From TrEMBL:
Alphabetized UniProt keyword annotations: Methyltransferase, Restriction system, S-adenosyl-L-methionine, Transferase
Name listed for the protein in its UniProt record: Cytosine-specific methyltransferase
GO biological process: DNA restriction-modification system; methylation
The keyword Methyltransferase belongs to this UniProt entry's keyword annotation: yes
Pfam families noted in UniProt: DNA_methylase
A molecular-function term among this protein's GO annotations: DNA (cytosine-5-)-methyltransferase activity
InterPro entries assigned: C5-MTase (IPR050750), C5_DNA_meth_AS (IPR018117), C5_MeTfrase (IPR001525), SAM-dependent_MTases_sf (IPR029063)
Reaction catalyzed: a 2'-deoxycytidine in DNA + S-adenosyl-L-methionine = a 5-methyl-2'-deoxycytidine in DNA + S-adenosyl-L-homocysteine + H(+)
Organism (species): Leptospira bandrabouensis
Amino acid sequence: MTVSNKIRFIDLFAGIGGFRLGFEKTGHFSCVFSSEIDRHAAEIYSANFGDTPHGDITSIQNEDIPPFEVLLAGFPCQPFSIAGEKKGFEDTRGTMFFEILRILQHHKPKVVVLENVKHFKDHDKGKTLKTVLDKLNLLGYSTVWKLLNAKDFGVPQNRERTIIIGCLENKSFHFNFKTNPIIENKITNILDGDDASFEYLDESEYTLIQKPKKQESGLIFVGYRNKKIRTVGVRENTEHLSRVHKQPNRIYSSEGIHPTIASQEPTGRYFILHKEKVRKLTLNECIKLMGFDNTFKFIGSSAKIYNRLGNSIVVPMVEQIANQIYLQLFSNSIETVTINHPQQLELFSK
């Protein structure tokens, strides 16, 4: 497939390019426009894709964007004060979602893919999600959404994200595709070799618990750094519970998966028990936990890179979504399910 006949997409709120990378890895899609306001994120994006994203989306005119078939956006979560009270989408003005809507209304791409945090469905008591779906419906998009977890896509990280997909032309996307997780998906699969420089904790700096149990999520909490614990609402003798300890002080087994990489953790204080020693994950290991390979270029301070990673999306998950979008909505190789009118399909993943 040549560039000229690939499916064109635009990458809004692009970050460092996790969405773009996942779609382009399929070989079916080509990016024709991107936008990112954060300067450091844009520098990393430019270093890897050869073009610098446009800046503030509110300053971008509809006519400045070339024709495209798919819109991608990991947009900020904002409440809509009078959500649902009007027939149009003016009640979203002042939010970043409004910028997406105006671009969709002007260009009318066949597919829109939105990404947000796990708790997006509960934001503003559910009004925010309802508004997003309603406004997409008003523009003619049939919408479906689901919580997807990185751990189901071969990445040893418990990272849930809300994915919303809208389609025109009476087509509908279905999330009931099978994922292909690797056998025994665990942290050990992404660890650096023994020749790497590791930051070990002295045995006096941490406490390991007896008989740790693997949680339903796949995490194995095995201990904690000897730091101050939470006291409000905490019972005595509960030090063996992970929730008592702040995230940077928790220690997890490398035989399980890792908790969510957070954007608010600039020092990368993620500790694991591996080969009977407790050490900090390296920055490179955190990069791999997000699904980026060693060819992806990261520039800037480690603090900034940790922030960029925490705000990014897991690449293998995006790649599989992109493949399914191609198969279900753009390929003639399988039958596409059609519907008579735009609707909302609410799918919850446990």
